[in-house]
Specification:
It is a single chain. By secondary structure, this protein is of the alpha/beta class. It folds into 2 domains: 190 residues, Glycogen Phosphorylase B (Rossmann fold); 172 residues, Rossmann fold. Helices cover 42% and strands 14% of the residues. The strands form 2 sheets. Strands 3-2-1-4-5-6-7 form a 7-stranded parallel beta sheet. The N and C termini lie close together (10 Å).
C-alpha cells in the first residue's frame, strides 16, 4: 500500500502535533513495515526526527516541485498537494494536523484527516480573531471533504459532531500514544546524567508542555502559595512560551516562589530519552490545562510510573484513567490538597495506549479504504 501524509509538522513542530505525527510514523514503520510511506512537506528538517527511521527505503520525502512549488511552498501545500499525491499514485492520504489540501479531490486517493481538538471554539479567548477564523475554515473544509475522520478522543469526536452535524459513522476515535522510550525504566547512570545536566533537585513537581494561557500553569504556583510551610517541593517546567513565562515569573516573584520555580528549557530542551528521566525522577506530574484534545504528557507520565494530577476539563480523564487524580482547573485549593497527598497517590501503567495498538487500529482503517 502507498500511504501519503501531510508531514509539515512531523518535520518542523516540536510540540503535540509534531509528536503525534512522528509517533504515528515510527509505529507504522515498526509494526507495519511492508507498506510504503510518503511524507509531503514544504520543508525538510532533521531537527526533531529519528534518522534511523527516516533513512529507509520504505520512506520517501516529497518537497515542493513544479511552478507552484517554486513560487510558494505554502501555496504548494494548500493548493497543489492533491495533484502531487495523484502523481505519485497514493492509495491513502492522511492529513495529520486538522487539515487537507484544497485540491484533495484531484488526488484520486482516499483521504483521512486527524482532528486533534476544537479549543479555538471552546475557548476563543485564547486566540486572535483572525487565527480562529483560519483554524475554523481549515477544520470545516477537512471534515466535509475527508472520506473519513480520526478523532483523538471521545471529547474531540463529540465536539466535531456538535459543530458540523455530520454522520457519526464518518468518525473513528483512535487515541494517541507516546514515544516508546517512556515505556522503559532508565538506569541509575542515565538518571544521574540528566539530574546533573539540568541541576535538578531530588524531589519536584513536574509540568511538561507549552506555556500559554490555556495550559493554566499559574494555578500550580497558586497551589504552592497555599502550601507554604506544608510542602516545599519546587516546580520543574519543561516547555516554552515567553509571554506566559513572564506571567509565571511575575507571580512567583510577588509570592516568594522564585526559588521553587525551575525552567529546565532555559538550559536545553530534553530529547525524549532525557525527558523520560525527568518524569521518572519527579514526585508527581501535574497537567492543569483548561482544554485539550488528548494530553500526551499524561501518557508519558503514566508510562513512567509516577502519579498524575490533571484538570477535570475536556478529555483528560480519557488519557489519565481511573488511577489519576483530577481537580477543577479554576480551584487552586483543590489542587493544593491533592499535591499535599502526593505520597499516598497511586499510579498505573496505561497498557492499552501502547504504540503497537494505535498502529493496528490505523492500519485497519487504511486497509478498508483500498481494494
Amino acid at each position: 500500500m502507498q500511504i501519503g501524509f501531510e508531514a509539515k509538522r512531523l518535520f518542523l513542530n516540536d510540540r503535540g502535533l509534531g509528536n503525534y505525527a512522528r509517533n504515528l510514523l515510527y509505529g507504522l514503520l515498526k509494526y507495519a513495515p511492508s507498506h510504503n510511506y510518503h511524507l509531503f512537506t514544504p520543508q525538510y528538517s532533521d531537527k526533531h526526527i529519528n534518522k534511523e527511521f527516516i533513512n529507509t527505503s520504505r520512506v520517501t520525502i516529497h518537497e515542493p516541485s513544479g511552478l507552484l512549488g517554486a513560487i510558494s511552498k505554502s501555496a504548494w501545500r494548500s493548493f497543489g498537494l492533491g495533484k502531487e499525491v495523484r502523481k505519485h499514485q497514493m492509495d491513502v492520504f492522511h492529513g495529520l494536523a486538522q487539515e487537507l489540501p484544497k485540491d484533495i479531490k484531484k488526488s484520486k486517493a482516499r483521504s483521512i484527516v486527524t482532528i486533534h481538538d476544537m479549543i479555538f471554539l471552546q475557548h476563543p479567548e485564547f486566540y486572535k480573531p483572525i487565527d480562529r477564523k483560519i483554524y475554523f475554515s481549515k477544520v470545516k473544509f477537512a471534515v466535509h471533504n475527508a472520506d473519513h475522520i480520526v478523532a483523538i478522543s471521545e471529547q474531540t469526536k463529540n465536539d466535531i459532531l456538535t459543530t458540523f452535524k455530520i454522520a457519526e459513522d464518518r468518525i473513528s476515535v483512535i487515541y494517541q500514544s507516546c514515544n516508546e522510550v517512556f515505556y522503559e525504566k532508565r538506569s541509575g547512570e542515565e538518571l544521574a546524567q540528566v539530574k546533573q545536566k539540568w541541576n535538578l533537585p531530588s524531589n519536584y513537581l513536574l509540568y511538561v508542555g507549552a506555556l500559554n494561557e490555556n495550559k493554566n500553569v499559574k494555578i500550580i504556583l497558586e497551589a504552592l502559595t497555599q502550601l507554604k510551610s506544608k510542602v516545599d517541593l519546587p516546580l520543574v517546567i519543561v516547555g516554552n512560551g515567553e509571554a506566559y513565562k513572564k506571567t509565571l515569573i511575575k507571580y512567583a516573584s510577588e509570592n516568594n516562589l522564585l526559588k521553587q520555580l525551575i525552567f529546565a528549557s532555559e538550559i536545553a530542551n530534553p530529547s525524549p530519552l532525557e525527558l523520560s528521566s525527568f518524569y521518572q525522577m519527579a514526585s508527581v506530574f501535574i497537567f492543569p490545562s483548561f482544554y485539550e484534545g488528548f494530553g500526551i504528557p499524561i501518557l508519558e507520565a503514566r508510562f513512567s510510573g509516577i502519579p498524575v494530577i490533571a484538570s477535570n476539563s475536556s478529555c483528560l480523564e480519557e488519557a489519565g484513567g481511573e488511577e489519576s487524580y483530577y481537580f477543577n482547573p479554576n480551584d487552586a485549593e483543590e489542587l493544593a490538597e491533592l499535591i499535599f497527598k502526593t505520597k499516598s497517590l497511586a499510579c498505573s501503567t496505561p497498557e492499552n495506549f501502547k504504540l503497537k495498538e494505535l498502529t493496528k487500529q490505523l492500519m485497519y482503517l487504511y486497509s478498508i479504504f483500498t481494494p
